[in-house]
Amino acid sequence: MTLAADAPFSKPVLGLLDDLARVLRAHLPRRRPRVDADDEPTPEDAVLRALCHDMRSPLASLEAALRSLDGPADRTREMLELARAQTAQLASMLRTADAAGGAVPRAGRRLLCDVVVASVAAAGLPRSLLTVEVLDGAGDVPVADARVQRILTNLLENAHRHGEGRSVRLRLTLRGGWVRLALTQGGVPVDRVVGHLRQSRPPMDLTGLGLWSVRRQTLELGGQLTWDDVGDAFTLTVCLPDR
Which residues form the Histidine kinase domain (predicted)? Predict the structure, then answer.
């Protein structure tokens, strides 16, 4: 069985350059008129925004890694590994955009455990703050869709960016034909996060775009999102069918 091997991509992104120009114009510093319902961003606009949003962290990390290559020799290998991880992440994102634009998906599978390693490296979350549990053989599930890594990276990146140094636990399980990716962190603003997760339409700006992207890609893969708030710990679970 394979995670998301035959999940359909969303409809092709038409007029990509026009969409890009529209997004760039929308973010220019100018006074904006009231937005009518007909002017809300389309899913195609949101996909482009999501890609731009998701590229920021890996590009920044890659740039920092390349600047550090002239540093002490004992850090060269570490920086090279980071640069390789970020390059692989960007390539994964471009494969997603390529397929969403109607191109033939490239063949190739990775194990879920390898996808987790790549996602952790791309998100920049310090290893000292992260605990990963892999149960029921979930790490050996083949992954044939780049969107799985985008989901994981977005969740870990959000936990890193907004978690204020609080620890994170990622728990992977495989039961009843479903792979569950459960991310737990304390101190999460539950109402705000759940509000973003419940949005069926893309946000007008970048606020909550990462969580909206997680929701969209999870549904595209035939999965579902659940969450639980017990005490100070908030757990968001992405359930994906093992095909």
Answer: 50-243
